[in-house]
Amino acid sequence: MNDLEVRQLRHFVAVAEELHFGRAAARLGMAQPPLSRTIRDLERQLGVPLFERTTRQVRLTGAGEVLLRDARTALEAVTAAAHRARHAGSAAPRLRIALKAEIDGGLLPQILEAYRTDPAALPAELVLGGFGEQPQALRDGLADVALVLCPMDDRGLDSEPLLTEPVLVAMAAADPLAARAQLCLADLAGRNLPGGAPADDGRTAPNRPGAARPASNLSEIFSLVETGSIVFFAPVSVARRNARPGVVYRPVSDLPKATLAIAWPQDARSPAVAAFVRAACAIAATHAEPHPQGARGGFG
Predict the structure, then answer these.
(1) Phi and psi angles of residue 72, each rounded to the nearest 5 degrees, phi first
(2) Cα–Cα–Cα angle for 207, 166, 156, nearest 5°?
(3) How far apart are CA 156 and CA 77, in angstroms?
(4) 8 Å CB contact between 143 and 98
(5) Could you tell me whether strands 247-251 and 167-172 are parallel, antiparallel, or unpaired per DSSP bridges?
(6) Nearest to 238 by CA among 104, 57, 136
(7) Which of 23, 67, 26 is nearest to 43 (CA)?
(8) What is the chain's Cα-based Rg?
């Protein structure tokens, strides 16, 4: 059997994710007939069917499901190899730190200060992204280390927890619930998180401040909270930085705490990555867990 080509895997993944040859072809920017030929050739090369095709639908076979999982991993590795090689060959290498703005437990300035004293330190570059994008940035070779909220997709990554802190609910000051000192998830019935998920659904809450978000940054999210359009689950460190007259924060007794971790690729051998991890763990060890409290417009 000949070795599989990256092109074949990209075409296969597109069809497997779309489960529609026309949509997959459009996604790849190509015509449908050559895409269909690529898939037929791939099935012939492997000696197994990858899709069940009918006039109504396309479905993955058992072999297709296995290939999809491994093909995604292989494509991530190819992409990461190109990004890491380009970065390693740069005239001025840097340590790229992926994070969501403000999701650092308030530790980042101190971590950077401690990191810079290490002989292995490289100049630091912050790679800002959305909620949950940091693990993929590591796998894609776009970052060397990341600060992430757990749970996370840890495929191919190592990690170390840094800080665990309570999560508060941010709501409009005019919300009737704002008059109460403490809430439970059931009290939030009828209110939605930024991604549209119901706020009282405990499955959306554990260590995940909200879900998929239409707002692109925390400023937009808190503006929506202020108008009463949504509520938002905010770790204490985020709440402290976002005091607004029109927003209150209240503890939620059955809302799981948020754990901030530092993550890096399992195969990382960079002394700069090791230096940053050491600095992060040392700084985190000096911080006691904060305690929840409610306050109008912040903490008082």
Answers:
(1) -60, -45
(2) 30
(3) 10
(4) yes
(5) antiparallel
(6) 104
(7) 67
(8) 23
Task: Provide the residue type at 115 as one letter.
Answer: Y
Q: Calculate the CA dihedral of residues 189, 194, 197, 202 and round it to 10 degrees.
A: -70
At 88-144, the pLDDT tens digits run 777 778 999 999 988 999 999 999 999 999 999 999 999 999 888 999 999 988 999
To which residue do tokens 């008059």 refer? 179
Residue 206 tokens, joined: 């554990």
AA identity, residue 36: S
pLDDT tens, 209-268?
Answer: 444 444 557 888 999 999 999 999 999 999 999 999 999 999 999 999 999 999 999 988
Beta-carbon count within 10 A of 3 CB:
6
Asked if residues 218 and 130 have their Cβ atoms less than 8 Å apart, the reply is no
Q: Which of 71, 87, 104, 100 is nearest to 144 (CA)?
A: 87
106: left (phi over 0), alpha (psi -120 to 50) or beta: left
User: With contact defined as beta carbons under 8 Å apart, do 28 and 39 qualify?
Assistant: no
Tell me the residue type at 198: P
Q: What is the pLDDT of residues 186-210, one digit of tens each?
A: 999 999 998 888 998 855 544 454 4
Q: List the one residue out of 69, 59, 79, 206 whose CA is nearest residue 139.
A: 79
296 three-state secondary structure = strand
Mean pLDDT score of the chain, rounded to an integer? Answer: 87
Which residues does 105 contact at the CB level (< 8 Å), separation at least 6?
147, 162, 163, 165, 235, 237, 260, 284, 287
Strand, helix or coil at 128? Answer: strand
pLDDT score at 203: 53
Q: Which range (113-117, 215-219, 289-293, 294-298) has the least confidence?
A: 294-298
Q: Which amino acid is at 39?
A: I
